[in-house]
Specification:
About 50% of the residues lie in helices and about 10% in strands. By secondary structure, the chain is of the alpha/beta class. It is globular and about 45 Å long. Pfam families: Polysacc_deac_1.
């Protein structure tokens, strides 16, 4: 009986070793991926956050404008005298120029998020340029200003995309990795609030979406809690351009 029991010990040890190696390799992959991302951001000068020394936070909204939700978000921002940055889709901006006009006159910043929200990395250079320029033209037509901010759809980019943005004098802006609220998946108002408030730090760029096909945009309910709470903590809400000064 005892012989049989001890016979299994080498097997158990081997299994344990395999599990430990598996864990180490997985963690090494995570660490490597993190540093590769950091190196990539340095190579391309991608914006993920602002200064960690100043108590500023930037609220950003993608995919809009939406005829209902964007207006409701603007009402909340106005109530608290808070400024934000909206990375618009050209096709939506073309449809709702009055909302772009309101965003502009109320002191918010407009950035480019492409025209059709396609994965630009898979496109020919002429398509990428058109996605960029068509949206830029819409912003300039409404505001009289050229946007210097670009956020690629899905946060995916390559050298060609970066070069096009750079040659147009723009900044590639993503978001602080732990401030991706994933609100597009409707995780619940409480979950969105938890993601933002539990990790808020100086210089954060928070990712929201003002355009949502759901019957209710959960960001609206979340903002009513997030904004006053962060103001109470002493944070100032700024546009991306202000964050980068």
């Amino acid at each position: 009986m005892f012989k049989n029991r001890y016979k299994f010990k080498p097997i158990v040890s081997i299994i344990s070793l395999i599990l430990i190696l598996h864990f180490m390799l997985n963690n090494n992959c995570i660490i490597t991926a993190f540093y590769e991302k950091e190196d990539l951001s340095k190579t391309y000068n991608i914006v993920y956050s602002g200064s960690r020394n100043e108590k500023n936070i930037a609220l950003t909204f993608d995919d809009g404008p939406h005829p209902i939700y964007t207006e409701e978000i603007l009402d909340i921002l106005k109530e608290y005298n808070v400024k934000a940055t909206f990375f618009i889709l050209g096709k939506h901006g073309e449809e709702y120029p009055d909302i772009l006009h309101r965003q502009n006159i109320e002191g918010h910043e407009l950035g480019i998020h492409s025209y059709n929200h396609i994965n630009l990395k898979n496109q020919e250079e002429n398509v990428i340029r058109e996605e960029f320029s068509r949206t830029q033209d819409i912003i300039r037509k409404v505001t009289g200003k050229k946007s210097k901010l670009f956020r690629p759809p899905y946060g995916i980019y390559n050298q060609v995309i970066y070069d096009i943005v750079s040659e147009n004098g723009g900044n590639m802006v993503l978001w602080t990795y732990y401030q991706d609220t994933k609100d597009w998946g409707n995780p619940g108002v409480e979950k969105i609030i938890e993601i933002v408030l539990s990790q808020a730090r100086n210089g954060d760029i928070i990712l929201f979406h003002d355009h949502n096909e759901a019957k209710e945009n959960q960001v609206i309910g979340a903002l009513k809690i997030i904004i006053p709470e962060l103001l109470n903590r002493g944070y100032k809400f700024v546009t991306i351009s202000e964050l980068l000064k």
